[in-house]
Amino acid sequence: MISRVTLPIGRLLARAGITPTMVTLTGTLGVVVSALYFYPRGDLYVGSAIITFFVLFDMLDGAVARASDSASDWGAFLDSTLDRLSDAAVFSGLLLWFVTGGDDPILAGVVLFCLVGGFGVSYIKARAEGLGVNCDVGIAERSERLLITLVSVGLGGLDVPYVLTGGLWILALLCALTIAQRLVETRARLTDPSSRVGGPEEQ
Question: Which long-range contacts (CB under 8 A, 24 or more apart) does 186-190 make?
């Protein structure tokens, strides 16, 4: 369904000479700059709207790669790596707001947990795959985490009561549950030789 929308746009971008790497870099730069500029100033709604635009734009890199037949392991690696930087910028911007103008140390702690938890969710999957097993379980992958974050922060910027606080606490809980799910799943697969898809490797 999504590809029906993104692939035609990807073809247009590819015809214009835009590469998947250019899309990835632009999307990441847009998210990082927007998050670190608007969120610490307390412009939560505007910041969330602009970040959402760049997140959606970043999703086009795969469509451009397919349209130009230029998909590669390096492109996938770069996209995944820069996604982590984007996530870090979003939560760092929020953290700066809550410890300064937002003056809410409790929510600052929740945001910090969400930042660390998000990295933990991604790391467990990457490390499991490095050890030769798949770990594709979890109720809060990156897309779900971003959706909850941007919606709750954006509505919080419009002064909708309880949405920001509730959204961040829910996100923290989902991060913890996803980490637990992936740890249990990875342990089960690592102790089952038939689950391995390759040899161990360091990451």
Answer: 186/124, 186/127, 186/128, 186/131, 186/133, 186/135, 189/128, 189/133, 189/134, 189/135, 190/128, 190/131, 190/133
- Give the active site residue among 43, 69, 83, 87: 83
Binding residues for a CDP-1,2-diacyl-sn-glycerol: 62, 66, 72
pLDDT in tens, 165-179: 999 999 999 999 999
Is the model's pTM score more than 0.85? yes
What are 94-124's pLDDT values in tens digits? Answer: 999 999 999 999 999 999 999 999 999 999 9
Q: Supply 167's token pair.
A: 């959204």
- Binding residues for Mg(2+), by number, are 58, 61, 79, 83
Tell me, yes or no, if 83 is annotated catalytic. Answer: yes
Ordered domains of the chain (ranges, CATH): 1-77 (1.20.120.1760), 104-203 (1.20.120.1760)
Task: Tell the residue number behind the tokens 């996100």, with chain if given.
Answer: 171
